[in-house]
């Protein structure tokens, strides 16, 4: 497994395993504490795992947490997703940068997203399982959502959204969220 810095988002990393494939399928390590530690992250900081299942076209996001934020490891364990990160840390050298990735069950790449960044994804295959490993318990009172189609962000979602939560459909613009954070 190797770790590569994501130039567009300071502190973000892409962890790329080496799948071993044969006639039975494949095997690969999807988490390695030593590799995580080698880039300065504490592997023991991740305390909660979750998984979501989506169908083609489902869009989830853009989400982030208020307060101390939430760092996460995201991996598409089955299918394929278009994954997006927006750096919303005012002191970051990559503040307001947007980066996108294609994550898939075939490659099993994992994306580390630092606290203070918004995250969203769109399912590109008929069935998509996305796994999350987060560094603190989820508190719905800290949930923040930003409009997926905010023109200021200009995210090139690959498919028209087929389904999303009401919260995501009604999300405020980035400008509105930033104004609320300043008050």
UniProtKB/TrEMBL annotation:
UniProt keyword Metal-binding present: no
Active site: 63 (proton acceptor), 132 (proton donor)
Annotated region (Disordered), positions in chain: 151-183
A cellular component annotation (GO) from this entry: cytosol
Domain of life: Bacteria
The reaction(s) this protein catalyses: dTDP-4-dehydro-6-deoxy-alpha-D-glucose = dTDP-4-dehydro-beta-L-rhamnose
Alphabetical UniProt keywords: Isomerase
Family label: Belongs to the dTDP-4-dehydrorhamnose 3,5-epimerase family.
Designated name of the protein: dTDP-4-dehydrorhamnose 3,5-epimerase
């Amino acid at each position: 497994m190797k770790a590569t810095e994501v130039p567009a988002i300071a502190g973000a990393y892409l962890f790329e395993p080496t799948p071993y494939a044969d006639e039975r399928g494949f095997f690969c390590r999807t988490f390695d504490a030593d590799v995580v530690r080698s880039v300065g992250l504490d592997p023991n900081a991740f305390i909660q795992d979750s998984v979501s299942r989506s169908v083609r076209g489902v869009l989830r996001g853009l989400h982030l947490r208020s307060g101390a934020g939430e760092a996460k490891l995201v991996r598409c364990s089955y299918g394929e997703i278009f994954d997006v990160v927006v750096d919303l840390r005012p002191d970051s050298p990559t503040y307001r940068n947007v980066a996108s990735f294609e994550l898939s069950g075939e490659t099993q790449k994992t994306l580390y997203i630092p606290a203070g960044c918004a995250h969203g994804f769109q399912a590109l295959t008929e069935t998509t399982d996305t796994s999350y490993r987060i560094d603190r318990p989820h508190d719905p009172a800290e949930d923040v959502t930003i409009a997926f189609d905010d023109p200021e962000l200009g995210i090139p979602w690959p498919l028209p959204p087929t389904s999303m939560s009401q919260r995501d459909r009604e999300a405020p613009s980035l400008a509105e969220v930033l104004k609320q954070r300043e008050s």
